[in-house]
Write a structure and sequence with these properties.
This protein is of the alpha+beta class and 473 residues long. It has three helices and 35 strands. A hairpin with a 3-residue loop joins strand 12 and strand 13. Helix 1 packs antiparallel against helix 2, helix 1 runs parallel beside helix 3 and helix 2 packs antiparallel against helix 3.
Length: 473
Amino acid sequence: MAKAFKKTGWYSVSEDTLRGLAKLVLGVGLLIGGYQAYQRWDEYTLERRANETLDRARVLMRTLSSDSNTTGYQDELSKASLHLSEAEDAWKGGSYRSALGKAQISRGLLLDVLDSMQNPGRRGEARFIYIEGVVEYRRGETGSFRRARPRDALYDGDYVRSSGQGSAELLFDSDGTLFTVRPGTMLKVQRQLGLSSRKQPVRMEYGWVDLQTSGRPSGVETEYAALQLNTESEATITFEEHSSTGRFAVGRGSGAVEAAESGDVLRLGALKQVVQKESELGAATDLLERPDIVSPPSNFDLNLDRTREVALSWDRVDGSAGYRFQVSRNRLFGDPLVDTKRAKTNATLGVNGQGNFYWRVAAYAPDGSLGPWSAMRKFRVLSFGGIGWKDTVAPALDIAGVNVNGNIVIVTGRTEPGVRLEIDGQRAPVAADGEFTLSVTPDSEGLVNLVVSAVDASGNRTLKTRQVFIETL
């Protein structure tokens, strides 16, 4: 049987081609719609978190504003009120990420006031806001370390120590600076004397920290050098105590590194780093770009009843020798499930368990130096025991040709790979691309209805019938 063609202007297009184009347009539309749905869900989640944090900050502000014991904390309350007002304006304007950040600063300042009122004579410099694994702190130079908990306050002279799988986020309430303490790190919290002083709010004894500033500069110092990071900037600092070697890398924004002994200052812009060996500062060198995540979108949901693999991909970074790829159950990556190097810009991850997973990637240079990490992405693995998801879409089935030669009928066409295909009750093999060809000999003579059936793994069926005339030879 010949293919049907439709006239379109001055040329002809086969019906198969039109159907293929329609499926392609539909598929693209579904992909775009799905991605937009994820974006809306991400925005909704951000909006909800911002709103919840705003409500908590408002409650604290009302409580402390009516307390007569806050006379000595007017400066902190004024700053908290300003950040809260800015957060409310950002939320009303739809800038939910900005609203969340400013609301967190306001709430942190108010919690600091509340903690200081409960501990008279001492005002906290910072507090733990998130902890993974084992992280401890010690009050001053003596005493024993105790297990840290979220909201524990840190004062001038306190020490923080993380285990080999422990990580924590410290928020300095006075300026909104965020320190991420990585595994195997020990640092000392210090009261900053002023922006012109070399003394920084954190002194690293050894280890690795990430620093993110907000509305004011902040920094980190070691025995041999200090980094002052400008506003709205990010940096990574490592210090090896046994070799007296430090690395100061600015991923975003700008800053300056000052040598402790000589007073030499080296200014660093975005994607610049310097290595310090004892009292000597090296020359500034370039960092590789931060990789951009391609897929899947943030907060992607994977149905374990449907598949046990997730494909992850990112953009290529010029000049990179490869990529370091991490997957973790926790968003600080203190104890990653996967920590490997890859030459390609994609990875296929096999998953067996449910829950939240976080992943990120960084490019490394030919000399092995690691660039800044990509934005963290999260995906969730769900399972409903085969109940929560069911394929209800019948498989595609196109009959391209039905050729009759006496009592022999040759049927050709295309369906979906993996289906059970039967023609006139006879099983037909299906190629990897879905194509099929089968010769059948109907039992009847004359005008016969030839039934073609395609059934997928979920039991969905597509039936098509073609009438043929069978002659007896």
